[in-house]
Design brief:
Distance between the termini: 38 Å
CATH architecture: Orthogonal Bundle
InterPro entries: HTH_MarR-typ (IPR000835), Tscrpt_reg_MarR-type_CS (IPR023187), WH-like_DNA-bd_sf (IPR036388), WH_DNA-bd_sf (IPR036390)
CATH superfamily: Winged helix-like DNA-binding domain superfamily/Winged helix DNA-binding domain
Largest sheet: 3 strands, antiparallel
Number of helices: 7
Strand order of the largest sheet: 1-3-2
Strand content: 5-15%
Number of domains: 1
CATH class: Mainly Alpha
Organism: Paucilactobacillus nenjiangensis
GO molecular function: DNA binding; DNA-binding transcription factor activity
Keywords: DNA-binding, Transcription, Transcription regulation
Protein name: MarR family transcriptional regulator
């Protein structure tokens, strides 16, 4: 039901000229809310599922490489990873080659949850792609990213 509301809101946004920044902020909150609801059974949120999926795709990655990969504030990434370690989803181990570096990998439980979360996110992406003009949406996002990088 909430997903249908999200899709209606996306469609509604496409039909009304309005403050783009405000509409993107509203859409961000709606997407995060939908993700939170769908991932709640796995103990994940819109803020932390992303890390598990990246670790699933990059097993045993060095933490500094992981920070570059996710392109987010390093202290935020560190807090999120530490929380996932406490939850038993991620293992952080000291590198044999450089004791200043940590390797990150999913635990068995972390891998299972990451796979389940990935299915949920793929389903959400699929539903959004069907309901929106996919190419237009991706073009708009790419153009907005380019403009923001120049600012």
């Amino acid at each position: 039901m909430r997903q249908n509301n999200l899709l209606k809101r996306v469609d509604h946004m496409n039909s009304q000229p309005t403050d783009l920044v405000q509409q993107l902020a509203i859409l961000d909150r709606q997407v995060a809310s939908t993700i939170n609801i769908k991932l709640k059974p796995f103990g994940l949120t819109a803020n932390n599922y992303f890390y598990l999926l990246k670790l699933k795709d990059n097993p045993n990655i060095i933490s500094s490489d992981f920070n570059r990969l996710v392109q987010l504030n390093q202290s935020s990434v560190t807090r999120a990873i530490n929380s996932l370690v406490e939850d038993g989803l991620v293992i952080k181990s000291v590198s044999n080659h450089d004791r200043r570096s940590d390797h990150l990998q999913l635990t068995e439980t972390g891998l299972l949850i990451a796979e389940q979360a990935e299915r949920v996110i793929n389903e959400l992406n699929h539903d959004l792609n069907i309901q929106t003009k996919q190419r237009y949406l991706y073009d708009m996002i790419a153009k907005a990213q380019t403009v923001l990088k120049k600012m």
